[in-house]
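Regression check, flavin mononucleotide case 169:
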Amino acid sequence: MIGVKLCAVYYSRSGSTKEIAESFSDSIGAELFKLEDKKPLKSISGLYALLGLGSPLKEPLPDIGSFEFLVLLTPIYAWHPSPQMNTFVNNADLKGKSVFLVGVGAGETNEKALKRFSAKAEKAGAKVVGTKNFKGLQIKQDLKEVKSNLIESGKQLAGIIERLVQQTW
Ligand SMILES: Cc1cc2nc3c(=O)[nH]c(=O)nc-3n(C[C@H](O)[C@H](O)[C@H](O)COP(=O)(O)O)c2cc1C
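Current build output:
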């Protein structure tokens, strides 16, 4: 247990962000919330992401009112955070909360996407305390091939967050 009210919120379609989020929350002992599409969006997610739009989620959205620190994890689509995460950020009350933003993409880095994600979170009133990109699934790659790397990424994230909490709180 760490000395701050911490939770993680993620969206995942093909499962790689989910693996990282679950490994992270198991390692650090944080509550984990999942965002789910109201209806499957399939291939238009990329276009919605590119346009900075949101997409409908199953309700109710995670009740994050009692948490002071949130780790938000999203796949990267077309150099942007997912529309599903956009909807969460725009609708959850993030005012005054600290957030650490995680992008999961096919690429090694996703600087532009993380900058865009940070700008959205800041606009919603959150304080961005850090960002990190992890490698997820390549096109047509099977989740089984990279599962152990994803679990390792979740543990690495837990280490980063633990150090941050020790320094900040
Ligand atoms: C429509 C679409 C657009 C994508 N665009 C990017 C991108 O701009 N940068 C990147 O690194 N990965 C990109 N990806 C790859 C996904 O981010 C990657 O496979 C991620 O691990 C998927 O997360 P998930 O398994 O949790 O759904 C894209 C994937 C799709 C389907």
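Comparison notes: The mean pLDDT is 95. The beta strands are 6-10, 31-34, 69-77, 80-81, 98-105, 127-135. No diff flagged against the previous build.
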